[in-house]
Sequence to fold (106 residues):
Amino acid sequence: RGIAAHALFEQEGFGARAAGSRHAGSCFVAKLLFAEAWQTQVLRRFRHEVLRPRGWGRGLIRLYYRGAPRVCAVLQRRPALRSLVRAVLGVFAAAVRLMLGAAAPR
Fold:
């Protein structure tokens, strides 16, 4: 069951990429806010190590991939909101980095 669920998850991910996203396979919001800084890397690791192995986590990832492009569109139009979300997500990324035992950024 685990292998089949993972295969289905991967297939759905490839389908989303084929739909034309220019950010295929990336963390949409994190990449918009942080580019490829340590925050994006930590959030990617959280997705892979914490969310992806769990059924509920894969569900959250699916919801994120469906909604994140729209969230990014709003954030691009609203700089003040983008700053707020960057601050909140930055704090979350720092907490995740501590939780996962990731090395401190240089």
Notes: Residues 46 and 99 are 9 Å apart (CA to CA). The helical segments are 2-18, 28-34, 38-51, 55-77, 79-100. The chain is about 80% helix and 0% strand. Confidence is low (pLDDT under 50) at residues 16-24.
